[in-house]
Amino acid sequence: MPDTKDRRGLNTAETEMKRTQYRAILAQLAQLSDGDEASRVQNCNKRETLRLIDVIRGEEMPQSVHDTGGWLYLETAVASAMSRPATETPDEAVASSRAAAETPDEAVVSLGHLFYLAGAQMTSVLDATLETLLKVLQNPAAPERRRVLTIKAIGEICWCSAPSQERLFAQGGVQPLVECVYNFAQNAVLARWACYTLTVVLADSAEIWQHLRKLEALERTLKALAADAELWTGWDNNHAAILCGLLYGLHPGVQ
What we know:
Layout: H1 12-30, H2 35-57, H3 74-81, H4 90-99, H5 104-118, H6 126-137, H7 144-158, H8 162-170, H9 174-182, H10 188-201, H11 206-213, H12 216-227, H13 239-248
Helix pairs in contact: 2-5, 2-6, 5-7, 6-7, 7-10, 9-10, 10-13, 12-13
């Protein structure tokens, strides 16, 4: 994994830039005297989430170009509200947003990024999002790439978000990740990303931590994966070893 990429598959500098821009936009929204504008942007994010879910399910329906704005183009809405020039017109922004998620794979990526940046606003569509992603992950007929992207997206949704972690556990979403780890001999790529995402989803959840601790087969599997240095060639970290450390207080196979 190149050092220039973060664990979500984004260029690290680009990720930080987008995060900074988004926070600045939210700060501007908070200063607006008219709360309707902030609500409109939040609703826009939710509509975009539902649209992405439809793309993943293969059920996207034609809609007016004005129906969605997309989280990638919040600056357009803020610029309008603040009466300053925007780099794109609303129509251009929407067209770009729709073009950016033409395939289910791209929709999965966009969905993960959206929750990573705006997760606190997205509780009303969290369950539908997790349900959709878990169906993809548990579908053996789904392309490997899409399943990998789905594991990454779940990690983004649950990043530093106790509510997302709780809902994932409540929907039975932890076990499919564990199954990916168990099946490392059949698909090492899924297993590696599942190890990483499990470190994310247990970070703020004692319930998930306790659940994983009870799985004796998981401990044996993680020790085997952690001891296999070749398995983690090209990765910045041995995430099986990290997960072992979080669960059992040891890092087997790592000096």
